[in-house]
Structure formats: C-alpha cells, structure tokens
Write a structure and sequence with these properties.
The complex is a heterodimer of chains A (270) and B (299).
Chain A: E1 6-17, E2 20-31, E3 35-39, H1 46-53, E4 61-66, E5 69-70, E6 73-76, E7 93-96, H2 99-106, E8 109-112, H3 124-135, H4 140-153, H5 169-181, E9 187-191, H6 199-214, E10 218-222, H7 226-232, E11 235-240, E12 243-248, H8 250-255, H9 260-269
Helix pairs in contact in A: 3-4, 3-5, 4-5, 5-6
Chain B: H1 36-58, H2 64-71, H3 74-105, H4 110-125, H5 128-136, H6 138-141, E1 144-148, E2 154-159, H7 160-163, H8 166-192, H9 195-203, H10 208-238, H11 250-261, H12 264-293
Antiparallel strand pairs in B: 1-2
Helix pairs in contact in B: 2-12, 3-4, 3-8, 3-11, 4-8, 5-8, 8-10, 9-10, 10-12, 11-12
Classes of the chains: A alpha/beta (270), B mainly alpha (299).
Chain lengths: 270, 299
C-alpha cells in the first residue's frame, strides 16, 4: 500500500458536506522529513484535506494513512478473517476505530489551528502539559520540564505562567505550536497558521515554522504565504474545486505553472 | 448606577500658574449644568424611605419583641437546618442528574436525546407542588420495590413506605424538578464554549471524559454559574412549598408557631429575615465561586 516510505498517503479521498462536494478524489503522498505547502483559493478544500489527516473530518470514501497505518479505521481482508466461508468473495472491510484508538493516533500528529484554540482558562504552561499528562500519562514534573524547554525554543520562556488572552496573536500561535510539539509528533499539520494574525506578527510565527522545517520535521502547511512556500517547501500543491490541480517543487509550480488556474491564482496573490 | 453622569467637577489646569490667558482652552473652568429636579426626586424618595423605616420601628403591630424571642428559638433553628438540608440535597442531586441529562441532550444518539427531552418536558410541565404530593403518595401506587432482573425475578425488595419517607419524598421531588432546569442551564453553558476548544482537545488526543472535565466544564461554568446561583436561591426559597407535606422546614415551623400564639406578622418576619440572611450568604458565595472560574478571562 505505501509508496516508497511515504509518511502520509492519501488515496482518492472524497468528502461532501451535504450537497457540497469539497474533496473530489484527492491523491497526495508526503515523504518523511518533507515540507509540503498546500495553496489554493478559499473553498478549494485544502483545510478539509488537512483535517482528514488526523480524522477531525471523516472521509466519505478513499483512505488516509499515516506511517503505514490507516487513520480512523482498521482494515480486515476476508482472507485474514477467521470465519470467512467463501474466501475472496467478500470485500475487505473497514472497521471504524474506537474513539480511544483515534485519540491515540492523533497524539502522533500535531495540529496547529488558524485561530490557535488555546485553552483560555489554563496558563501557557498548563496548555502545554495538559495533553502529555492526559494522553501519554507523562509525570507532571517531566511534562513541565519539556514544556519549559519548548517555550524557550519558540522564544516565550518568560510567559509560562501567563494566561493566553494576555498574549499577542503571534505569541499565542507560537504557544499553540509548542503545545503541538509537546506530544513529540511525527507529523505536523498547520491550517493557515498566520491568517488570523496582524501583518507585523506573521513573521515571528513563520520563523518558528521555518526553524522546525530546517530540523527535518515532516509537515504539511496550508497557507497563503507564497514567499514562505518558495523558501521552505519541498513540494508545493495547488488545489482548486476539491482537486489537486498540480504539484511539484516550488520552482516549478510557483514560477512555471502548467495550468491556467494556477497561473491566474498566483497572479492575484503575488 | 446612575442613568446620567455628571461631568467632572470644575476642572482647572494646575500646571499653569498665574492668571489664565483668555484664549487657552485648557485653562477654562467648566461649570456643571444644574439639575434641580434630581434634587427634588431625591428629597421625595428620602422622605418615603424615612416614613417606612419609622413605621417599622414605631408601629407596635410588628411586635419586634416576639420576633426577637423566636428568631433564635430552638424550633426555628432546627427548621432552618431542615430547609438548608432540603436545599443542599435538592441542589446536589438536581445538578448531578441535570449534568447527565444535559449531555444526553447533546448526545449523538437520537434515543438518548429524545429521553432527555421528554424528561425535561415532563418535569417542567408538572407543577412542583403536584409532583411533591405524588411522591408523598408513592406508596399508594407501588407498595414495594423489587430489585432484580428487569421483568424477571427479584432478588430483594423494600417497602416503599420505609424507603420514601416524607423527607425522602421532598428531596426526591425537589431534585427531580431541579434536574430539568439544571439540565437546560448546563446545556446552555456547554453550548457557549467555543467548538474549537473541543476540537483542539481532540486533536491533542486528550481522552473524552477529561476533555469534558478539564476543558469544557470549567469554561462552561462561567456562563452556568449566574443561572445556577439563581436556581439555588430559588430552590432555597422554594423549599417552603414542602410545607404542604408537613415537613418541619422553616416556613412550616413558623406557621405552626403562629397557629398556636396568633402572632402571624412577627413570625412571618422571622422566616423572612432568615431567608434574606441565607440568600445573602449564597450571593456572597456565588461571587467567590465565579471569581474562581474566571481565571484567564479578560471580562
């Protein structure tokens, strides 16, 4: 199933919200250590695609695997099933995973939201220690140490005891990134991480993400920051109308786009 | 809070010594507008309040001596204790069941949603006093309760009379009634929490129950508390309705006393002052509980 050690393997994924089909058969492979940047107009399905990768959104058909494991399902082939009388005639079955198993899968996938979604009633430090303590059963003390180190890494060592609402948007998003990193995920997903920020705060968040990219973190970034894509991406993916229109190295997709749709999009945002 | 605000009193520019120049706006003295009608209104209100206070003190019909004698009498104190017990049990059981019902109404299962909706519909529709009399007469409907396999044989049984005494029936009635209201208040609070919070918690792999306990409920508490405090206070005074079941709570007890000695007004005042005192205590408590749950909030 997996293609050459792809960390993320998305196969003909479809997803509708009511009558609106937002993903119309998407295939995407992301290799370990790569940075993939997904571009596209709003409504093109890029955020939905990202959300299917950690099962925040259930797909209608197709499959998503991370590290060789299906996300949200367990596949059982009839040949492997114990009581299969007519071998080969029954189709393979997908069993929905229990919520606990899905939650466990998610601890290996960090997700950073457009609107941060920090827990406002917890301090910055508590925001970072909550998941390691609750989901990975780390001792509180150890989790706090890791958290302080992560805060130092995003340049917010002095904000450990502050409440999120006292921070600027850029600082909040850096805390959110640190919170995602606290679980030591194998994959990081960013859903328009700078879209809710004032223009002068975008840079500090992108710096943190670039820093992670240079350390070889596998990540998928949905964004409108073309400059960031050019500088950091290994692969740029352009989506429109629920499909991937084209993908390739930034030099190709951004500078010599093959499709008219990509060209007209880039001419508007550049 | 006044509906209008006075402009700040005469403002001068202290940093400027010497006679102010005519053309310097910062040095001009502001003269507040006169409000004679406001002073008239204050005078009238003050006279009315003074008259009321004077009446309370001088009218012998208030019988403050009787009030003082009974305010801390043993029977009254015991009755206050019973009232508090009814309030505490009613609130605790009511909100415990209310939280369960709220999450049933928010559940993905149509069956659980319908059951919770039906419960809330029924218990909000039946007057509390009717319900209390029903529970009081439970033994008439079911002589004994069997515990065992549903529709099958029972393992042991208890007499309903012994299980649900007058006090038990009262607590049960108050709690079941309260649960219906509590459920809606809790549900409202949970709905007020931004959906992104649950999503973030889910994305971090935090277990479901902990998501509710640690992320959702503490945030929901902020909007639940003002309404919940209303409910607790209204239940506290609502316990007086239990007097129809001849339970010795505060209101029943003062009725008994004035039935004997005829001092209706002073004894009603005994009950009134106790209700006011304890409601005040609850309000103060509410302030501190709300402050606890406003951690990290900016308003």
């Amino acid at each position: 199933m997996s293609t050459h050690g792809a960390m993320v393997d998305i196969r003909s994924v479809r997803k509708s919200f009511g009558p609106l089909e937002v993903l119309r058969g998407v295939d995407l492979q992301v290799r370990t250590g790569e940075v993939t940047v997904v571009l596209g107009p709003s409504g093109s399905g890029k955020s939905t695609l990202l959300r299917t990768i950690n099962h925040l959104e259930k797909v209608d058909s197709g499959s998503v695997s991370v590290n060789g494991a299906l996300v949200g399902y367990r596949r059982e082939d009839p040949a492997a099933a114990r009581r299969s009388f007519r071998r080969g005639e029954r189709p393979a079955r997908l069993y929905e995973l229990r919520e606990r198993e899905i939650l466990k899968q998610r601890t290996e996938i960090g997700f950073v939201f457009q609107n941060f979604h920090l827990f406002p009633h917890l301090t910055v430090l508590e925001n970072l220690t909550e998941a390691p303590v609750a989901a990975l059963r780390r001792p509180k003390k150890e989790a706090a140490e890791t958290a302080r180190a992560l805060l130092a890494r995003v340049g917010l060592a002095d904000k450990a005891d502050a409440y999120p609402r006292t921070l600027s948007g850029g600082q909040q998003q850096r805390v959110a990134i640190a919170r995602a990193l606290a679980l030591e995920p194998k994959l990081l997903l960013f859903d328009e991480p700078t879209s809710a920020l004032d223009p002068e705060l975008v840079g500090e968040v992108l710096e943190v993400i670039k820093d992670l990219a240079h350390q070889g973190t596998t990540m998928i970034v949905v964004t409108h920051e073309i400059g960031f894509a050019r500088e950091v991406a290994d692969t740029v993916v352009f989506m429109d109308g629920g499909r991937i229109v084209e993908q390739g190295p930034p030099g190709e997709v951004l500078d010599r786009p093959r499709h008219e749709r990509t060209r007209s999009f880039l001419s508007k945002v550049l | 809070m006044p509906l209008t605000t006075d402009p700040p009193a005469a403002r001068t520019a202290p940093e400027r010594a010497g006679p102010p120049a005519d053309d310097d706006p910062a040095a001009l003295v502001v003269v507040p507008v006169r409000r004679p009608w406001r002073w008239a209104a204050i005078a009238v209100t003050a006279v009315l309040i003074a008259q009321f206070g004077h009446g309370l003190l001088t009218n012998p019909a208030w019988e403050w001596g009787v009030f003082a004698r009974f305010f801390t009498a043993g029977t009254v104190l015991t009755a206050v204790g019973t009232t508090l017990q009814l309030t505490v049990y009613g609130t605790a059981l009511g909100f415990a069941l209310g939280i369960v019902l709220a999450f049933m109404r928010l559940s993905a299962s149509p069956f659980l949603r319908a059951v919770a909706f039906g419960y809330i519909w029924a218990f909000r529709s039946i007057p509390l006093i009717v319900q209390l009399l029903f529970w009081f007469n439970l033994a008439y409907l079911y002589k004994r309760l069997d515990f065992g396999i549903p529709f099958g044989p029972g393992f042991f049984h208890v007499d309903t009379m012994g299980l649900v005494g007058a006090m038990g029936a009262a607590v049960l009635g108050l709690a079941l009634h309260q649960a219906a209201y509590a459920a809606e208040i809790v549900r409202g609070g949970v709905l007020a929490v931004d959906g992104g919070q649950l999503e973030a918690a889910a994305a971090l792999g935090i277990p479901r129950l902990r998501q509710l306990r640690r992320i959702v409920l503490p945030q929901a508490a902020r909007s639940i508390l003002p309404n919940a405090a209303n409910e607790v206070i209204s239940l506290f005074k609502g316990t007086s309705i239990v007097s129809v079941m001849a339970i010795g709570e505060l209101f029943y007890q003062v009725q008994v006393v004035y039935g004997r000695n005829g001092a209706v007004v002073p004894l009603l005042m005994v009950a009134t002052v106790w209700y006011i005192l304890l409601t005040t205590v609850l309000s103060v408590l509410q302030h501190y509980v709300e402050r606890h749950f406003s951690k990290g909030a900016t308003r």
